[in-house]
Amino acid sequence: MPDFDWNDLRAFLAMARTGRLTVAARQLGVDHSTLSRRISGLEAALGTPLFDRRPAGFVPTPEGERLLPDAEAMEAMALRLTGRLADAGQQLSGSVRVGSPEGFGTYFLGPRLATLATRHPQLELELVAMPRSFSLSKREADLAITMTRPAQGRVYAHKLVDYALGLYASPQYLQGRRAIRQREDLTSHRWIGYVEELMWTEELDYLPQVQRGLVPQLRISNVISQMMALAGGAGLGVLPHFMARQQPGLVQVLADKVRLVRSYWCVTHEDTHELARVRRVVEFLDEQVAAAGEDFWLD
Q1: Domain of 61?
Q2: Which of 105, 190, 204, 229 could form a disulfide with 235 if both were Cys (CB 3.0 to 4.6 A apart)?
C-alpha cells in the first residue's frame, strides 16, 4: 500500500488547481519548500511523476489527471467529516470564503458584515468582491454570488434577489447638452460601458436593451469605477439602484422609460453545502436581503 498521507493529497490538489507553487503554498498556509516536499513525497509513494513543469506553470501529467477525481473524492469525505465534528460543537467556527460581484459585495454585503461578526465571533469570513466568476469545484470560494443560475456542476443554487437598474449621469454632464426626453435622444450622448473581453457574464451587456446602436466611448472593467466616472461627469451609464442611491451627485435619466432587471443567485458546492458555517452564512444572506426588501427596486 502506498505510504502517503492526506496532507500530501491536499498539496497535490492545491497545485493542480492553481498551477503555481507559491500560490498553492499560500492557500495551504505553508512555505513553498514544504509544498514541494509533499508533492515529491506523494510522487515517490505512487512511483510516478504527477506534474510537468511548463512556462505557464505546473500541469498534471496523465497520471496526475487520473489521480485528481480520487483526490477530490477524498477531499469531499474529509470536508464532511470535519463538518460533522464542527457541527457537534457549541460555537460556530471556521472559515467561509464568499465570492461576490464587486457591486453587491461592496455596497450591500460589506456594510452588513459587522452584524455577522458580532453574532459569530469565532467565524472567519473572507469576502472576495471582484468582477469575475468563481469556481467552487476548485475551492476558489465556499459560497458564490452569481448573476445567473449555474447550468451544471455539483452545486446548490437559489435565487437571492431580483434587482432593478437604471440610467444615470451627473448634473454637470447633462448641463448644456441635448435634453433627453426619449430613448432616441440617447444616441447623441457619450456612454460608459464594460471592456468587452473582460465582461465576465453576458448579463452585464446592458446597452442593447437600452437602445439599439449605443456604443460606449469609455469602457471600464468594473461597475464601481464606472459609477465614479459617471459621478465625475464622464457620460451616461447603467447602474443598479441600490448602488446609485449611495453615490451623491448622480441623477436618474428616463426613469419612466428605461428599467432593467437582473438577479443575484446564491450558490454552494455539494461537498460544503451542509457545513454549519456555510449554512449560517447562506441564512444570513437570505435574512439581510429579505430585510432590505424594496431597496433593490426603489429608484
Answers
A1: 6-88
A2: 190
CA 181 to chain CA centroid, nearest Å: 37
Please identify, among 88, 117, 139, the residue that sits at the C-terminal boundary of a domain: 88
Quickly tell me which residue has 465534528 as its cell.
85
CA distance linking residue 147 with residue 178, whole number of Å: 34
Give buried/exposed letters for 50-83 (b at 16+ CB in 10 A, else e): bbeeeeeebebeeebeebbeebbeebeeebeeeb
> Do residue 128 and residue 248 come from a single domain?
yes
Please give the tally of structural domains in the chain: 2
Question: What distance in Å separates the CA atoms of residue 140 and residue 24, rounded to the nearest whole number?
Answer: 12
The DSSP bridge partners found for residue 51 are 60
The answer to whether 250 and 237 have CB atoms below 8 angstroms apart is: no
| Whether residue 106 is found in the same domain as residue 234 | yes
| Distances in whole angstroms, Cα of residue 8 to Cα of each of 36, 44, 105 | 10, 11, 34
Q: How many CB atoms lie within 10 A of CB 210?
A: 20
pLDDT (tens, 9 = 90+) of the chain, 299 residues, equals 456 677 888 888 888 888 888 888 888 888 888 888 888 888 888 889 988 888 888 899 999 888 888 887 787 777 666 666 555 555 567 889 999 999 999 999 999 999 999 999 989 999 999 998 898 887 889 999 999 999 888 899 999 999 999 999 999 999 988 899 999 999 999 999 999 999 999 999 999 999 988 999 999 999 999 999 999 999 999 999 999 999 988 999 999 999 999 999 999 998 888 888 899 999 999 999 999 988 898 76
> H-helix or E-strand containing 282?
helix 276-292
Bridge partners, 219 (sequence order): 193
Q: Is 8 in contact with 45 (CB distance < 8 Å)?
A: yes
Strands 94-100 and 143-146: parallel
CATH code for position 48: 1.10.10.10
Cell 444615470 sits at which residue? Answer: 168
